[in-house]
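Example 3.2
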Amino acid sequence: MLGGYRIEGRRAAEIAASVERGVGSGELEPGRLLPPVRELAGRLGVNPNTVAAAYRVLRERGVIETAGRRGSRVRPAPATTGRDHIRVEVPEGVRDVAGGNPDGSLLPELAPALAAAAARGDREPVLYGNPAVEPELARVARADLAAAGVPDGPLAVVSGSLDGIERVLTAHLKAGDTVAVEDPGWGRTLDLVPALGLRTAPVAVDDEGPLPDDVRGAVEGGARALIVTDRAQNPTGAALSARRARALRAVLRAHPETLLIEDDHGHGIVDLPLHPLAGATRHWAFVRSVAKAYGPDLRLAVLTGDEVTVDRVRGRQRLGPGWVSLLLQRTVVRLWEDGRPDTRAVAAEYGRRRESLIGALAERGVAAHGRSGMNVWVPVPDETGAVARLLHSGWAVAPGARFRLSAPPGIRITVSALRHGDTERLADAVAAALGPAPEPGYV
């Protein structure tokens, strides 16, 4: 049942840690059936309740799943390993269009803004007890959010989109609750949810965002929360249209106790308007990161929401890191004030590269999707074969398995690394790797 791996321990924590070590090392691979509670208890010489407690901890951590009489198994994507292992190692001489990073040449120079923020810090040192949110950042962010139609609400500053999503989920949900997630969707979110002891309910996505009927089915089926990417959806490039947003708001208004979390990580690199869902439910949060437009290492996102949600996020934050560095907050404010980078020009450039690749693929009979952002999603009949053939031809693309639960296979191509002349060569390689054109659509 366990191959050559031996689970050890006398206490529940020790048994759980032993299983996690096996999963982390790869000796207990995804799908591996674990011994029944009484069998393992007998082998270890402990009370069955001890093993049952260990299995419960492992379920809550997203390491294993239990299916009644069929027993407990290691999850297909255990939270201890995440999806980062589902990636392509890029050999020397191969072009990397898999990484998902912004184009460094489109990011602003940080030195002047950091120097100005540091000089202020020298004059007025930040000490314990300072406000957790820089007032000027709050003022500018609040004005931008209001202009985009996001309802008024208190503000918090968190360490990026995923940090904000995690804090909101833990502020409202308990282990075992279900979260509706986009499928395909952001791999980190698909890892985070089970790592928090929560269950995932996949919701299909098209170019305009999550499908309303799927969202309705998820919340009517018991999902207590919904996570939506407003624009630059990763990996498909979907963006909520006005029509889709109206339909989703109607679904959510019929289920007002659903926790709504919106991720606008594409702000600053997208030339499509925002159509927020915020306010359609009693508890909601809207997270806007600066990572894609200003640099991933700034680790900063603005979070707003209803008063209860933001108050809980702030309260838990005070008990942990306390605040996100005001040096970074003031750096971001300086970048905003200086208009660096020109986000309209950045969005237009990503749009040009994305649309150029989609057009070149279409000329070769290959359907692709990418309404916004820096990624293009290509449905494929054989994901592993397509990735391998493209790697052989000199292009490293991201396997769709990193972003899927039950959605059909695909590959993700990041256009930020593409330069003049690359598009035609890449499109030729993709067409050759796929052979006959796949059916259009990815739902």
